[in-house]
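Pipeline run #58 for the internal structure catalog. This entry was flagged by the ingest filter as a single-chain record with no existing model, so it goes straight to prediction. Upstream metadata was stripped on purpose; only the residue string is passed forward. Reviewer on rotation: M.T. Logging verbosity set to normal.
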Amino acid sequence: MEAVTAPEVAPGSTLKVKEASPADADLPQASPQRGAGSPTPQLLPPIEEHPKIWLPRALRQTYIRKAGDTVNLLIPFQGKPKPRAIWTHDGCALDTSRVSVRNGDHDSILFIREAQRADSGRYQLSVQLGRLEATATIDILVIERPGPPQSIKLVDFWGSSAALEWTPPQDTGNAALLGYTVQKADTKSGLWFTVQERCHRTSCTVSNLIVGNSYAFRVFAENQCGLSETAPITADLAHIQKAVIGYDTQLFCCVRASPKPKIIWLKNKMDIQGNPKYRALTHLGICSLEIRKPGPFDGGIYTCKAVNPLGEASVDCRVDVKVYDNSIQYQVLKAMLKMTCSLLLCAFQYKL
């Protein structure tokens, strides 16, 4: 009597033995005796080779295609006699109006002429031979270009720079965004030029704008398929005027906190750390921001933010810059500065 060995499972596939079903009872069984005139029973052929699926290595991770591309997957299998091959999509039967299958003696082909995002999902191939069944799963992801960012806003402009903010697109194209591409165009030429690529934030500062020009800006979203087909454009223009240079000025505030906080300066909610126009210092709890040779575009709301592991607090100060006879006069709202500085101190005394 021959020993029964466990069947081998091919990489990427699963072999299981199906439980007997009521339908199995209807299968013809061999009878040791049969009388004259009895019909000859049909015996099931013996299984000479267990079913196996040889899933290609490239399909053992998510299979990504662009919308409109062809999907043509050839999956080899084995089994003798010839097994039955069945495909499903997310646990349901295939939509034969979009997906076609050709089963051969040793392989099965899944074909989609022009893939759409609705074709994404989990496809399972089942190879059945009697009560033995081998299965393999393939995850397909169909992607396309993202939609455009929903809006873009010119937050501020000063000197030869402009600050922009935008909102992410509603549709990412069924794929992760790689970033944003920002472009500028001056009103004289109307030509668009890229100033930043693969920007990962939803804000940026554009520098080196030419004095005397007015600029519009637009932003594209980008994923693995490329840039969005359209891009929103700023409603306002950045008019780059010749700066009137004045004297350096400084802003001060007091901070008390433990542990020692990190000090961050912002202008109109935009981080200005690292900008050579400003110099920030902190000594014995006194924070100062020096504005070097400011011009009219240096006016705005300046914020000093202190952050430590226990929390954060901030103080705002408005700076107005006015020009009188080619000279600069600074009008700092000292009452507001004094009041908010005391609030910052109290916040750190009681919050941290």
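catalog note: The helical segments are 334-351.
catalog note: Residues 1-8, 22-34, 326-352 have pLDDT under 50 and may be disordered.
status: ready for reviewer M.T.
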